[in-house]
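Exam review. A common question shows you a sequence with its structure tokens and asks you to describe the fold in words. Practice with the pair below. Do the first one on your own.
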Amino acid sequence: MLILITYDVSTIDSEGRRRLFKVAKKCVDHGQRVQNSVFECILDAAQFRRLRFELEELIDKDTDSLRFYNLGDNYKSKVQHVGAKDSYEMGDPLIL
């Protein structure tokens, strides 16, 4: 299923900047960045639960926020893109 993850991490201090780096790194490990704080991740239910738990452990719930959008398995008809930064098809093999 396609999970869209967005986050807003307060970076007014060095601890916030560290949290931001850790959240971004965790998201990069599981999907592709489509905007600065927006990631598309193809995950099964167990992977999603684990990633959500790990991200929730990283943030400061008093100053940061996470949003998860479950677009399901039939996401291709739900996502439209206009403009720069074409993405790759996440279910297909990536050949470098």
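Now try the second one, then compare your answer with the model answer below.
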Amino acid sequence: MSDMSYLAKKPIAVLGAGAVGKTCAADCKLAGREVRLYSRSLKSLANLDRTGILLDGIQRNLYGFERSGKAFLDVVSNDMAEVVKGAGLVIISIPALAHEDYLRKLVPLLEDGMVIHTFTDNYASLLLRKFMREAGCTKKVIIGGWSSAPYGTRIEKINGFWTNHVGAKYRAISLRGACLPMTDIDDFMESTKYLPCMDSVTTGNGPVRGDTMLDIGFSNVNPVIHVPASLLGVSSMENWSLVYGNAPDSYSMYSHGLCPSICRVQYQFYKEEVAIADAIGIESPYYSYEMFFSRRSVLTQEYMGLDENGKDNVVFPLDKPCDEGNTGPNNINHRYITEDIPVGCKIYHDLGVKFGVPTPIIDSMIVLGGAMHEKSFFKETKYDLDYLGIGHMTKEQLLDYMRKGVYVEK
């Protein structure tokens, strides 16, 4: 393992000023680091020089880790070069469908020694390596990503106006991460010690080493939780305000949409993911059947942990009210559908086809989501294995690339 202590004195660049990006930026600044924030959207950066970012919220986690306050960042800019230059750690925290735009801009700005962390990875690491190859970029950088973000967080919205206030519902005490190639994994994991937004993880149960970036794709709980609950609970969502008279934007897929029947579908979705991972020959997270039957589904263990018997420390029963879950989605144009289907579900489908694993539950989610949008998410998405640069590879070639960085051209 290399000495990664040089990262302690270098700026942290955060790319993306949504809820996760602003929370990461504020968290790192409140920990005393130099932090720079980039967004291609001027609106998301509005007034930050005057207001800073206010970070607060319940921040629930097993060990009570908390960091709150108002953070004034060192640089706020829509010029990526200004933000990235000289940085040691680069955090990418944007929706998957914006990855290509950000990553292509990042490639010519990369510097030797940089470590890139993507929350949530959603195959960004594969894309960044692909874009580097296409550009002939040979900078010595470590590229990795995580199964989830370090927080469940939201930007406060006041009657449709987005503020610079972020409220964290919970902080993760463990996240699953990997890098491409896996020969860099020791250094990648060591770098988390110099990334304050991961403090609740590194001082909690610690980061977990995934088995390649494909494992991290299967470790992303968003598709398996969000998609069945959003699609199968769509009537509750669409009637929430118009028919039931509840406050707009107060609907929670977790608190109001989940039910035993949907949880059974989620478990079968998960079993299809496991079957694909097994066919490829990689590890993936283990969840028991009963873990899905909670109003926070399998997410609770990320911040409240498991007991000595491997069971959730905290379960939110489906037959009782619960306000633990984050709000959303409020309509079918939410990322729980428009990102998690054409990215997460679609790649699972394609991997299933490539490795001979039937995915009827996952496929049904793609069909239903597409029908609601009056389109085909099988066709109207750029996400397939060729887009990730791996469609032409045999299983052996794919694993060599993931683990050793040996890339075989098409």
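Model answer, second protein: The CA atoms of residues 111 and 139 lie 6 Å apart. The radius of gyration is 20 Å. Full marks require stating both points clearly.
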